Automatic annotation (TrEMBL):
Keyword terms: Cell projection, Cilium
PANTHER family in UniProt: IFT57/HIPPI, INTRAFLAGELLAR TRANSPORT PROTEIN 57 HOMOLOG
Protein name: Intraflagellar transport protein 57 homolog
Subcellular location, principal: other
Ranges that cross the membrane: none
Signal peptide: none
Biased composition range(s): Basic and acidic residues: 1-19
BP terms from Gene Ontology: intraciliary transport; non-motile cilium assembly
Amino acid sequence: EEGAAGRRGERERSEEGPAERGPGAAFHMFVLMEDLLDKLKLLNYEEEALRRHNMRPLSRHYFALPTNPGEQFFIFCALAAWLISRAGRPFEPPQESDDPNAVISKVLSELRSF
């Protein structure tokens, strides 16, 4: 019974909105995006990933704000493919015309195999 109550409490916390989690929770996504961008820069993503796909550098909050979901999805998948290749696994980068479900399925399948 205790375990069920604990799991229920965890679920309730995960379903809380930003207001219930504290004043800084609404900005947590922006902090995560800045950390992600710093890590990508350390891996030299601008030279190795962006130039290969002829893309412009990401802003500090590119994935934190939904501006153009199709473009954001493609760039996310292209970066994921680049990171998988960088980890030593051959992975074909996605094309903009590829089926999004197939692309994300391939990315997730490859990540599960790590």
